[in-house]
Design brief:
Helix content is 47%, strand content 10%. The protein is of the alpha+beta class and 248 residues long. The two termini are 38 Å apart.
Amino acid sequence: MNDIEPILTSLPSGSSGPSAPPSFDKTKLLIPGAIILAGLLVSTSILYGRLSAGLPDQQAGQALVGGLAEREDIVEVRTDDAPFIGDKGAPVKVVEFGDYQCPFCERYFQNVKPSVISEYVDSGKVKFVWMDYAFLGQESQWSAQAARCAGEQDRFWQYHDYLYDHQGAENSGAFSIANLKKFAQALGLDTANFNSCLDSGKYASAVTRETQYGSSIGTPATFINGRLVVGAVPYANIKSIIDAELNK
């Protein structure tokens, strides 16, 4: 994602206002200013998604506390035929809405997902579902479509992992059409069928619809049995919610 540049506002010319002491260093405002502004932007984005789903302001705001869902209401996430790992009838369903170009999603892939898989999915306690939230530009769309094309050959998760392992700067060419085809070749897919699928744009509308659906219920986020978890939170936070759901 693009870095957020803080904006310092000065008084209009000729106005009389308190001036800073000679030793005051305005650059000290940059880091906290950026943090506050980033937090406001993320909160506004999530709040907009929740309001789009028809939830009152107070309920929407409660979902932002500590990055974890503090609301009592549960979102019934429609996953339809989305790819998943684990037991279809597992007592806990974890739904990740992600973008292959998103650095926070890549952090989640590296630091959270492996522990969820080893501790809960492999033991039959969690069903882990992937949903596309391709919001960072054209290469987000192309990579999401490519993973679905790989899914036609029962290689969705291998391709999904390969994308995160080869993530580059946003829309820099890392996920160009040519590179996506090279990834398929590296994974040993039937490249003729894969290339035909990708070139046709077969899944373009499906990726767009899923991204729009994610926006309507408050993504980018993860849902654990319908409970909203915002952002790339530590695994301990995810674990506490899964355990709470298992102990109900």
